[in-house]
Amino acid sequence: MAGSENSVTVHSEWMEYAPLIILLPMMSFAVILFLGRVFNGHPFWKNTLKEGGLIALPVMAASLILSLLLISEFLKGHSAFDSLFETIPWVNTAVWNGGAATDSVSLGFGIYVDHITVMLLFVASFLCLLINTFSIGYMNTDPINDNRNHRFYAEFVLFCSGMLGMVLADSFLWLFIFWELMGLCSYLLIGFYYERPSAASAAKKAFLTTRIGDVFLVVGLVMLWDLFGSLNYAVVFDTYNIEQVAAHSAGTLQWALGLMFIGAVGKSAQFPLHVWLPDAMEGPTPVSALIHAATMVNAGLYLVARMFPFFGADALHGDLDDLAFIIASVGGITAVMAAAIAFVQMDLKKVLAYSTMSQLAYIFTGLGCAMYLANTLDWHHDKDAHYIVIVAFGAALFHLFNHAMAKGMLFMASGSVIHEVHHAHHHLHHHDDHGDDHGDDHDDHHDDHFDAQSMENMGGLASKMPITATAMLVGSASIMGLPLIGGFWSKEGIIANAWRVAQDDPRFFLPAACVLIGAAMTGFYMSRMWFMTFAGKPKNEVAAHVGPTNTWIKTPLFILTFVTLSSIILAGMGFTHWASDTSYSFLSERTLIEGIVYEMDHAFLNSDAFFFILTYIAIFLGAVVGPGLAMALYGGSLAEGETAKPWMRPVLRLSAWMNGRFYFDNSAFRDSTFAIALQNRLYIDEYYDKAMVNIVAGFSNKVAEADSEVIDGTIKSIESGSQSLSTFVRSMTTGSARDYILMVSVGTLVIFFLIWGMA
Amino acid sequence: MDDWISLPLVGFPLIASVVLLAFVSNANQATRDRLASPIRMVCLVFSSLLLVVTTGMFFQYFGNVSWEGISFNSYEFDHRYLWIEALGIHWAVGMDALSFPMVWLTTFLLPVTIIATWNEKNGATYFPIVLAMGGALIGVFVSLDLFMFYVFWELTLIPMFFLILMWGGKDRRYASQKFFIYTFTASVIMLLGLITLYFFQDTSNPMIHAGTMTGRTFDIQTITSHALVENSNGNWYLGANIQKVLFVMLMLGFLVKLPAVPFHTWLPDAHVQAPTGGSMLLAGVMLKMGAYGMFRLPLSLFPHALQYFQLTLMIIGMISLVWGAIVCLGQTNLKKMVAYSSVSHMGVIVIGIATMQPMGWAAALFMMFAHGVISPMLFAVCGAFKHHYHSMEIGAMRGMAKHSPWLATSMMFAWMASLGLPLLAGFVAELMVLIALWYMIAAEGWSVLWMVGPALVLAITAAYYLWSMQRTIFEGGDETQPPASLHGEPVPDITDSEKLAMIILAVFTILFGVMPWIALDMMNDWTVQIFEGLILPILGNFNGGA
Hints:
heterodimer, A: mainly alpha, two-stranded antiparallel ribbon, 29 helices, 70% helix, 2% strand, disordered N terminus, B: mainly alpha, 22 helices, 2 strands
């Protein structure tokens, strides 16, 4: 285990700078915000510094470089670093357990690096830099963002620092602190176009939905703290401590981890807390890329991956399998549900949003299965079991990597498409001078007449935007898991492991079936998206006028295309064997070529007949059935005279052929109740809204009423009661001597009888 | 050395205020208006000097006191001289790690309040009254004599009463009277408790500071040390029944001040009608008098009764927390919502106390402090909102981010701080209370359901703050017009002095959120001292161990 006996404290000079990975972006937040406030609109600030974009860029680059140095140091050491610098005692306090003295406890901040950290650190810092590059090309060329991009870049860097901090923190407490920081930034960025009611409501929804998950997370953390007396990884993952806890409170531990998992469900947008993610598309596209690829949604996965040492602990053997099942099932259900909803989306970004949800669900399923295996197999002593566990865990983490790269690329590419469609729209109407109804277009960039995100306004863009189309093609292929590309290497692993577990534990047939069906569904909706956007003839005049995009946007697309395509190399390097286990060297002992050959062999010529067949079923579903159906429905060749790049031509030709040969009318499905339900997101949002409005708002209004009527009413009646009492008393002051004499005599008599009676 | 320093801390603001008020009392309106600006400056400089002094005390520049390691019932900067010998009344002052943060907070909020309400009308009388408020509040926190404590306790009502009555909103007359009578009634019950406490002292036991005529004393230090002895070995100081009754009487006075549900309805009325400066001091420091009083008197004197009433306190805390939060959700008035959020946050303090854990108590102390920094900012935002848009209704003004970016930023910051965003001051306290609560639940076998309330409130708090921001900061595209109350004038942003106050408050909110140890270490030390010096010796052996 990554317990303290294995961990080493390394004092290399780069380690001392590790906090800068977090601090640099955090400080530049203040700098950009301040400079933006002061120099807003100044030509130098606007054109040369790109309203802060060129301050953020070097900062993110520095973070990436420092991260890479840290990672390389780590890889030399091959084991977990507890604390790279002295832990800062943050909160010092004490508890009393009924004994003769109080026990002091401390919550501190430090940095912790292990295999999981390394993976996410790279993903986050690398993608943040690329998205930053993209943003300069995207945000600064749209007049609607004029003079407020400093806000975007400031919040952007704060978001990145939140993610980097979360990954590097050495305790669940600081994980949570940075986690909330990200929540804040997502709120600010989703609500970037604050004047739009839809954005305002989406921002609120995102924050509130994740907050509901966070509530459970906090309770889980508090319970965990109670069990271990600390939230530091070094303490809670310590073998001895886990043994102590396992002896008395394995059940409580499972509850604590389960509650923490609900936090992850909220953050990573899994059913039933998924509703915020599609709405989060209200933010600018770079924000979508940031949330969906580099940061926010990975946070939930990271949290669950962090729990791995509990599942893998000998002392807890077989105690946590229920939770593993829940994790896998939530993943499985979400995978299918999100994919189904993605079928009917017309909005380019919404398709990608549901695809994110679905792919994250795959990773959850993968993690759940890996954890089940780690929890039920004797993997510390049995070499084969050990191999199974680390491959299962590795598949999940590698899918996180592949998905992040592909999804980052897809969002940026979609942003580029939207950006250009948008510009074409303006360009067209600017020159056409159709009449009054378009006269104000330049002021109101988001008018109701035209939706630049709708795929109904695209089509045939493959020839107009070759780099974007290629990036999108590769990204989609990676998500679909087309053989040899990107996500294939990890997705197959997840599916295989789900079925492996299902053989042990029949409950797991549910997630296993879900991920298998999900493969076909992914194939369909991702291909549908690509063909609707890039294949066929332009669906309207705007799409016919789209031009190529700028360098700031192209560069990250190019880099990510390359990374996604070279996934096989990473797989060969041993990325598929990733585990939080210090006894396993994560870089393969084989040479690169051997590794690649091994991975190929393992993937396509599995010696186990069951997995051999399973692999080909999955490939058939994901790479033939799904895309085939999409081609038949939405494929088509480009318009006359338009040519695509040579590597896209076969795809387009094939789709045109499929479309001509197998096209069928699917309007019956489109009008079915089920499809309408899908379009309405299965009415889940509606139910939530209703619950909010009727139950929560209704109840709180009643309580507020009770507060003023009953509680304050009581006080007021005491007030008026004492007033009328005093009025009554005052009324006895008549001023008449006879009355006074009467009262005095009555009083005297009463006193007399009282004394007499008492005596 | 420097032991006399509390005397000017209390006396100077009061004297200065009286002098300034006397100075303008006979002047006509024109002279007052002319004098407003210099008086404001005098008050600002004066209160800043107080801040310099207390800050110097923190940095050990004055007195060389580290504020840690002060054992229970010992005080620094203590100073005592006989006042009314016959009754055993002293001018007794002193500070420990319980009162010092509150004193610093008061001196911190005075200049900030003056800056935030720089342009308040009738400044010639307003600023001296604010100063007097500060003096009275410091007096409460440094008093070590029951008599003095009560005098200052009631003295705080007077400036606040006038602040509400003379600078308040439409229903200020009703609100100020309600505020005064409500809290005064509670104080009378407390006074009865204090006098009973005085008379039930055992005169056969010679006491250091006893009076010549009564043989009894009002000296808190003497009473506390006496109670410590009498409470030991399973005995109850003053006997079980009297201790319980006294505990209830004192707690009642403090719970009304805090305020805890169901004694809270004076607060929203007072806040809504009070001027911004009044609200800032009311929420920032005055509410904390209740919590401070609990720690200083009932908790220190009657640990047995505390243990006896632990469940009751927990219930009161939970109800305040949840009820306050739910009522917030149903509010349409911005300031009322913020006022109820204070009720909810004060519930956290009561829960922290009811956990009977050092961590819970330290959390309660830190909550007092953090809320003292955050809530003035909340009310400063409300005040600016009202000042500029002439309305307090949520939804009266939308798209503030566009029209008033500074106000929008301040509002979002304050709201986020209040809903417990990590790295801002409030989070630490909330987290510690949760941990302490769960620790107590697990150790003493309480029901897990006690966690439901606090957990629920984490979500509810976010809900009402986000909901109100959506309708103020956000939205307001082209179709939403500025409120009619502006009569078509351009929407203004906050003034420079308001900006400055917001920035100061925000900086300190971040400071205490990122580096909570600055204040928390001494608070934690105080709780450890009181537990090891008082609670453990008295309750430890008889608690049977958890």
